[in-house]
Design brief:
By secondary structure, the protein is α/β, with parallel strands linked by helices. It is built from 12 helices and 12 strands. β10 and β11 form a beta hairpin. The structure holds S-adenosylmethionine. S-adenosylmethionine binds next to β3, β5 and α12.
Length: 342
């Protein structure tokens, strides 16, 4: 019993503990962001996962429970767009019933959040991160390619805050030639609101986005552009594995984050595993092979067997893709972010 209460933390070959779990609940999305699910690839003919391959909420909850035995405390629901899956609040309620999950969060494009925020909060969600790639409609609609205006996402953010899901983090992916002109307006728009914008370097996830190193706006450039307008001071990280470098406005206008996964990789502190919508475990966002946990669940493995298998998989983990990234590695086989979960 004592062992169950305080599980032995799982450590990989680089002594990185398993602490965070990202769960993709669907590979579908109602946006066609140019850097993630470009419309010319994810069109009518795209083969999404068949329904029977997707983990049920009961299967997800059971697997999440096994992960907590190995040290996971933080769970993030993602996708695809998690809110396109029906009754997501039911899954939140099931996960929230596990006391080992102390941080239960959601990453969403925000377009459907206004309708769901209250139910999600009531079910036990603790926070949300909302993606928004510009604060002006022409740029944002060009990025999402789904005619969704900024106001719809802002309504979602406001509803989340009203439901107690704040402080809301706002993710902005910056792609050269597409939205770098929107960086300072985004900073200005959210300064003093308590919402924390995190500027993210465009990454070479999957293949469909045709990533090129030249398309990346380095975090140093983003930082300098913002600091020229609003002086910034660095802040200390709050915990191991924090991916964003934090800065505060010198005048007290709040804070921002920079996620420099391309120019300043943080593999050394990566404590996160990913579970795809069809139940494959990926130990890195850039992994090629997922380990099929759904098969084990559906074949009748016990929790002890699942736990032992997970521990073995984590023990041999050696991933450090972002530290090895180059123009050449961009061409290596990789899975799409909409599938593995962002
Ligand atoms: N649909 C949800 C959303 O939009 O937040 C969740 C899934 S999305 C894949 C998760 C995050 O990954 C979003 O903030 C998105 O902007 C980011 N993202 C997707 N593709 C990316 C890429 N190539 N480089 C950097 N970030 C990316």
């Amino acid at each position: 019993m004592a062992r169950l209460m305080s599980p032995e933390p799982a450590l990989d070959t680089r002594a990185r503990p398993l602490h965070d779990l990202r769960i993709s609940v669907t590979d579908r999305c109602n946006f066609r962001c140019v850097y993630c699910m470009p419309r010319e690839v994810f069109g009518r003919d795209w083969a999404y996962l068949p329904r029977e391959e997707i983990l049920t909420y009961e299967e997800i909850t059971r697997l999440a429970g096994v992960f907590t035995r190995l040290g996971v405390h933080k769970v993030r629901l993602t996708g695809g767009e998690p809110l396109v899956r029906r009754d997501l609040d039911a899954l939140v309620r099931m996960l929230a019933a596990n006391p080992a999950i102390t941080d239960l969060t959601l990453t969403t494009n925000g377009s459907l959040l206004a309708a769901h925020a209250t139910a999600l909060a009531a079910a036990g969600l603790t926070r949300v991160t909302v993606s928004l790639d510009a604060s002006d409609d022409p740029t944002f609609e060009r990025m999402n390619d789904a005619h969704v205006p900024v106001a719809r996402v802002l309504e979602g953010i406001e509803a989340a805050e009203a439901a107690g899901l704040g402080p809301v983090k706002v993710n902005m992916v910056v792609k050269r030639g597409w939205n770098e002109h929107a960086v300072v307006p985004m900073a200005r728009r959210f300064r003093g609101t308590g919402r924390i914008v995190r500027f993210i370097e465009y990454m070479d996830v999957g293949h469909s986005n045709g990533w090129r190193l030249d398309d990346v706006v380095p975090a140093s450039e983003i930082l300098a552009t913002i600091a020229a307008e609003f002086p910034l001071e660095p802040m200390a990280p709050t915990h191991r594995g924090e991916v964003a470098r934090r800065y505060r406005y010198a005048d007290g206008g709040g804070e921002i984050g920079l996620i420099a996964s391309v120019s300043q990789p943080f593999c050394g502190d990566c404590v996160r595993a990913r579970l795809s919508a069809d139940g494959k475990l990926f130990t890195c966002l850039f992994a090629v092979v997922g380990h099929d946990l759904k098969r084990l669940v559906r074949d009748g493995s016990s929790d002890d067997e699942l736990s032992a298998r997970l521990r073995r998989l984590w023990a041999v983990r050696d991933d450090n893709y972002s530290e090895r990234r180059s123009a050449e590695t961009a061409g290596l086989p990789k899975v799409e972010m909409s599938y593995i979960g962002g």
